[in-house]
Amino acid sequence: MQQMLKGKKALVTGGTAGIGREIALQFARQGASVAIFGTNEERAKAVLEELEKAKISEEQKFAYYLVDVAHSKNVEGTVANILKDWSHIDILVNNAGITRDNLLMRMSEEDWDLVVDVNLKSVYNTCRVLARSMMKARSGKIINITSVIGLTGNAGQTNYAASKSGMIGFSKSLAKELASRNVCVNCIAPGYIETQMTQELPAQVKEAVLSKIPLSRIGQPSDIAYAALFLASDLANYITGQVLTVDGGMVI
Ligand code: NDP
Fold this sequence. Notes:
Blueprint: E1 9-13, H1 18-29, E2 33-38, H2 41-54, E3 62-66, H3 72-86, E4 91-94, H4 109-137, E5 140-145, H5 149-152, H6 158-178, E6 183-190, H7 196-199, H8 203-210, H9 221-232, E7 243-246
Parallel strand pairs: 1-2, 1-4, 2-3, 4-5, 5-6, 6-7
Helix pairs in contact: 1-2, 1-9, 3-4, 4-6
NADPH dihydro-nicotinamide-adenine-dinucleotide phosphate binds near residues 38, 39, 118 and 193.
């Protein structure tokens, strides 16, 4: 199917790498204008070039913004600028995320705060400033990238699991708040996806994870991008408040 997002305007946080980069590119291939948030300028520039190459219509626009999604004032200012230039955003993907794994007994307050702020407070930051314009437009799609860890928990990831479960509760609540204005809010819970985030795990951990995936392969960023494309498109206009797990069957 082509041009599923023709004329739409999307914002993807953490669009400079991994899953977010692939979502941004997939949206561009389907006709959307895409703005990405990240903090690494080199990667942001490289993705911007890729987006330009992926476009299918001269009307599509692309931009990157160097913004730390954990800081509400930075997000507020940047989104205000985007809305000035682009008038509105149809699709928001909250994808930026980090891990700082440790057992609770060894977890510093700094690592707790950082993970919760980047993964969860960021979602409050972007949704709060974009919900108003989506409500006014009486349409919009918000897609929050949580994790299977937010569903199951995982030893050594109390901060990450709390932030990812928090995203789910937040999304279900916001879905109820915005449904009357035709704004849909959903989550995608990826399983184990091959990106920089998972590359750093030791080989034996990777093998143990693989043995628990019924579809017998590690996921690719494109597996998540296709799910995001579906939820962002008109095919998902009657779906809100849901968590779509994309994990090769890890959590059944
Ligand atoms: P990567 O580490 O490959 O990419 C993370 C992205 O988040 C980068 O673009 C990075 O941008 C951005 N980012 C990190 N911190 C900030 C910040 N403070 N402000 C703005 N942007 C930030 O991770 P993945 O692609 O693997 O993960 C993407 C999402 O998917 C995350 O939310 C993650 O929790 C989730 N997920 C991933 C899984 C996996 O197996 N990979 C499994 C389940 C969920 P920059 O470097 O430019 O700052």
